[in-house]
Amino acid sequence: MRWALAGALLVSMPCALLGVFLILRRMVFVAVAVSELAACGIALGLWLGTAPPLVAIAAAVLGMVLLALAGRDGTVSRESLVGAVYALSAALALALMALNPLAHSHGVDLLAGDLLYTQPAHAAVLAALAAAVACGTVLTFKRLLFAFFDRDMAQTLGVRVRGLEVGFLLAVALVVGCSLRVAGVVFVFASLVLPPLVGLAAGRRIVPAIVIAVAVAGAASVAGLYLSYRTMELPAGPAIVLVYGGAAVAVAVALGTAALMRGILRRLRAHAMGAR
Known about the structure:
By secondary structure, the chain is mainly α. 86% of the residues lie in helices and 0% in strands.
């Protein structure tokens, strides 16, 4: 259980950190595409008879670099390219799995992931990657925000926008590719989306949003793993995702209630002023 908790934390927290930028940049579908690229890499590795996790990482990294460099002339939108990559990767993964029936069950295990089978070597790789992502974010934070949200001004001031963007997408690809074997597609994608949504809804500003997103990812990992342990039937990854969903619903209800109360108070004050 200790290694399972380490795996859950080392997958969910870096994903939550990167997910905040993906959502703000409106690149959520990129996370879907890179997850499918990594899944396609696993299927390709099984078909070739080589190490599926390494092929998955290579496929994710290569695909993300091509996505970052493609469409620079503006003739084709990045959204259409991402959609094409997702569709082709999904089709190719299904075809490769069908051509290799003996490896089908093994491929399903790799794609689904199981946190309870996290090994010390997996945790070490994820820890090194999480540290690199955290350090890279701290060192490039201001330039990354500038490049993402005021691209023209950043280029005018000499910021290497393309390099930052390629580096960011490369980090996303590495995190997804390395996390897939430990946690599975669903958990990785949910960690890229749900905790950042909670953080952005509750934090409003970028730094509080990142802190809240990472904290939610960590707390949900602990709570979900404990829920899986207590029930003895619920898989760890889906249990954590369900806790993510509960946190998102709770924040939505709290924010909706707060907005409703503010509206009521405004109407009461307006009525009181009119009565005077």
